């Protein structure tokens, strides 16, 4: 009976990084383009909106009224971008979760699943918890983000929503029976998110650097004329659009990699936790039905 139980040893963090990279390379042709293209469209439209607002600001000037309009317009534009980006992220994570669990058509149905009302309600509830942590302080927000990191895989793989999904995520993230620092799921999640952030930052810098150099050169060349209309009508502003598009295409690769890391960690923690529960149940059953010890004379 004991040989059928799953291994209760936690996956080393180095192995988790390598396995996530292998899964990313193996699935990139299937999972990248269905989500990278919509993200590129959204970010390209956002870049075009920024360019239009910048041109209006250059021509109209920088008065108090124009500054207030700029702030409100940017807030509205950010809201229009955040909503579809969250949907794309959730659909991508759903597809990654299904791919990791053996689904041969992971993209099919991931968009529809991520727009179900229980799913949306749970995402909003998680967002409110994160905002509450942000209001308290920076570090409580990090703690909330870590303990709720498994909400998405819980909803996708276990079909659990609402507060039950939040409690389930909290229980899995906090599972560390050996009390080892490096085996703590919270530590692994934090380190993996830091790795994803660093890689994403480096890739973004590499992509944006050539565009930034060209923009600066063209800006100063047009600024010497002193004509705001000439500056607004110059082509350097529109370089923001391809920069945003290329950034979206490359960031999706990093997003898939981070999603695989979280999914693999979720499966590993759940396997160990349920294996521990099964082992304890088997031992308790053996104790209850064990034959009585023979009496000694």
Tags for this entry?
disordered N terminus; 0% strand; mainly alpha; 297 residues; 11 helices
Main structural class? mainly alpha
Overall residue-averaged pLDDT value: 82
Q: Which word captures the global form?
A: elongated
The sequence of SSEs as H and E is HHHHHHHHHHH
The parts where pLDDT drops under 50 for at least 5 residues are: 1-5
Distance between the termini: 33 Å
Helix content: over 70%
Main sheet? none
**Rg, Cα atoms, Å:** 25 Å
Strand content: under 5%
The count of helical stretches stands at 11
Number of β-strand runs = 0
Question: How is this structure best described in words?
Answer:
The chain is mostly helical and 297 residues long. The N terminus is likely disordered. Helix 2 crosses helix 11. The protein is elongated, with a radius of gyration of 25 Å. The chain is built from eleven helices and no strands. It has a domain of 188 residues. 27% of the residues are buried.
In short:
The longest helix is centred in the last third of the chain and has 50 residues, at 240-289.
Show the helix and strand layout.
Layout: H1 13-31, H2 33-60, H3 64-100, H4 110-113, H5 117-136, H6 138-147, H7 151-158, H8 162-173, H9 185-223, H10 228-233, H11 240-289
């Amino acid at each position: 009976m004991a040989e059928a139980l799953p291994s209760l040893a936690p996956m080393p963090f180095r192995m988790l990084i390598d396995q996530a990279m292998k899964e990313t390379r193996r699935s990139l042709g299937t999972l990248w383009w269905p989500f990278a293209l919509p993200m590129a469209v959204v970010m390209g439209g956002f870049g075009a909106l920024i360019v239009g607002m910048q041109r209006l600001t250059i021509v109209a000037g920088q008065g108090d009224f124009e500054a207030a309009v700029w702030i409100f317009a940017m807030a509205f534009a950010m809201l229009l971008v955040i909503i579809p980006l969250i949907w794309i992220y959730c659909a991508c994570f759903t597809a990654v979760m299904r791919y990791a669990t053996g689904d041969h058509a992971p993209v099919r149905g991931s968009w529809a699943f991520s727009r179900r009302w229980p799913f949306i309600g749970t995402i909003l509830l998680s967002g409110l918890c994160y905002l509450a942590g942000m209001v308290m302080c920076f570090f409580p927000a990090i703690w909330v983000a870590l303990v709720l990191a498994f909400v998405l895989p819980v909803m996708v793989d276990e079909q659990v929503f609402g507060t039950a999904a939040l409690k389930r995520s909290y229980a899995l993230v906090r599972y560390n029976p050996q009390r080892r620092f490096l085996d703590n799921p919270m530590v692994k999640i934090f380190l993996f998110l830091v790795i994803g952030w660093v890689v994403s930052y480096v890739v973004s810098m590499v992509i944006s650097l050539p565009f930034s150099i060209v923009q600066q050169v063209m800006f100063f060349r047009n600024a010497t004329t002193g004509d705001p209309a000439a500056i607004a009508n110059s082509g350097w502003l529109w370089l923001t659009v391809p920069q945003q598009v290329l950034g979206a295409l490359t960031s999706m690769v990093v997003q898939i990699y981070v999603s695989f890391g979280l999914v693999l960690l979720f499966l590993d923690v759940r396997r160990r936790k349920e294996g521990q529960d099964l082992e304890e149940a088997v031992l308790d059953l053996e104790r209850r039905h064990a034959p009585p010890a023979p009496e000694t004379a």
